[in-house]
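Question:
Write out your own:
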Amino acid sequence: MALKGINLVRSAWLSGVLCKTSPVQIIDASWFMPGAETTPQEVYNEGRIPGAKFFDLDDCCDKLTSLPHMMPDQDSFLNYLEKIGIELDPGKNIVVYDTIGMFSSPRLWYMLKVSGFPNVAVLEGGLPAWKAEGLEVEVKMPSNTAGKLSPRGPTCPKALPNQFVDKDEVRKASLVELKPDLRRPSYIVDARGASRFDGITPEPREGLRSGHIPNSVNVPFSTVLNEKGFILSKNEVLQKFEQVGIDPETVKLQKQSVIFSCGSGVTACIPLLALVHHFDVDLSLCKVYDGAFAEWGGLDEKNYPVKQNPGE
């Protein structure tokens, strides 16, 4: 079964596929916040879903900027995938997961999708859900399966243009006031926690202002997940978006773009995934502000202001 149009899978499905001849490429896309006691690579080495490759967000990134794990150019991204042993075949199924449940895997899902891989899904609940079902965990150290770089032929994955937006496109969207009766060309959704959005809790990265991008709305990534790392039901996700004035059906029908942001462009992809999964919103309408608040919070106040809700 091709995963085109399927954005989420569960452990039972993946286990069943692994028992058959149907090929699926599996990637551990774990990423931890700075200051974590261990590294994603170390956790991967201790145990993984059989056959999984490890994808390092901090290694596969734009090396020309100091901003964290920014999306690299298409060739660099494809080269990295080949280096870790992923075939550049758009027809192949890919399942991504992380070791927290659902935290960083949607980021790689989005990177793959907008880079021309249509058959990509996130494993709901990640490795914890896999283990909870008593499924096999590979503990033997993986062999070095680095792939060779292949020539870029006509079947090579092609990237969707303009999916990662910059600070000036975000600034333009931020100038449109939030009014219930206003036909907006775009929305800005911030997936950070409410206290960071409101400016009550300082940013974890030093030197950044506290607060949020003007006229952005807050849908914390944790609010669209249950305690096991599964996306909430369609009605529950709908409620989360409607609470901040976004009607997913209107977004889809009127082709309004939604720019997702967070601290550094990782968890922004969780509410984005929920929107695409439940409401079939075209991926081209779902943008990611890649610099996110790691960039915006360090810019000048005059041109890139922040707002706070200290009383909330």
Remarks:
- The mean pLDDT is 93.
- Strands lie at 8-9, 24-28, 53-54, 93-97, 120-123, 164-165, 186-190, 217-218, 257-261, 286-289.
- Residues 198 and 312 are 7 Å apart (CA to CA).
